[in-house]
Predict the 3D structure of the following.
Amino acid sequence: MSAFRFFPYLLLGWFIFYTPRILSQSFCELGDFALENGQIIKQCRIGYRTFGSLNEDKNNAILFPTYFTGKSDALRSHVGGKGKMLDSTRYFIILTDALGNGVSSSPSNSTLQAGREFPQFTIADMVRTQEAMIRKQWGIEKLHAVIGISMGGMQAFQWMAAFPEKVGKMISLVGTPKLGFSDLLLWQSEIQPIEKALQTNSNLQQAMEITVLIHAYALYTPSWRNKNQKTDDFQSFVQAEIQKSASFSPLDWAWQAKAMMAHNAYKTLPLDKLGELLKTRGLIVYASQDLMVSPQACADLVQYSGAEHIVLADDCGHLATGCNIGRIGERVQAFLQKQ
C-alpha cells in the first residue's frame, strides 16, 4: 500500500483561473471538525496539490486521495498530458492528503492533540473532510470522478456511498468496499506491536521495525518474491526495510490502519443501492492474488452489479497496479471520457 515508490515523479507548471498557480503543498483550513464518533479534530487542515485548470462550470474536477501512509507528492507520476492516467490538459486534478498521513491533520503533527491524544477517525471521516475542502476551496458541488489506489480506493467507494449526487464516476484500484477477515488479521498484526509499545511505554520505533516487515510480506505474492529476489540478499533487504521504518510515524500508521479496519461502505449505502450506482458509474480494478486487500469483496460486487472492471491475475499481488500501469491507464482514460 505504501510502496508505489517506484513511479517517477513528474512536475508540471500551469496557471489556473479559479485557483492560484500551485506547484507545491497547499492546505485547506477546516477549523474544528466533528468526526463520526463525536470527537473533534481541532484546527483540522487537509493538504492538497492541484494540476490543470478548473473550467467555468466547475465540472471537470477529479479527486485523487492518497493510499495508506502515502503523501500527495507521490501521486504526481500518474498526472500529466494525454499519455498519463490522468490528463491535466482536460481535467482539474486534486491530489489530496488523507487524514493521518503526516501532512493533513495527524497524530504526528497536531499541536493541540498530539500523539495518542489525537481522535480516532474513519475512512468516512477522511471523505467528509475532502468534501468540505472542495466546497470551501473551489466551490465544487460535483466531481467528474474520484479515483484512488488501495486505501485511496476505499475512500473512492465511500465517496460514492456517502455523496452519490456529488460523484460522476468512481474508480477504485486495488481498493475494497469493505474489509474481509484476512484484511483485519493483517492490519491487527501490524498494529499490535505499536499498541503493545504504547501500553508498556516501550520504544515505538522499535515496534515499527516489526510492523514494516509484516507489511512488506503482504505487498507481493510469495511467487513474485521468490522469482525476483535472491535469498543471498535477504538480510540486506530486511535491514533496508528496518531503516525505512524510521521514516514512518507509528501513531500515524496505527490510526490510518484502524480507519481501514472500520471501513465498510455498505454501512453508508446498502449493497443493492451502491451496486446500482456502480453499474454505470464505476470502474473496479482488483488483483486476484492480492494478500493485502482481499479481492473477494470487489469480485462479489462486480458479479452483483455488472460494473466495469479489470481483474489483474499476475503474481504482483497488491502492487499489481504498478506492474500493469500502462494497461490500467488506458482503461481509466477511456472510462473518464465515457458519456
User: Anything to note?
Assistant: The chain has two domains: 26-179+264-337, 182-258. The first strand starts at residue 26 and ends at 34.
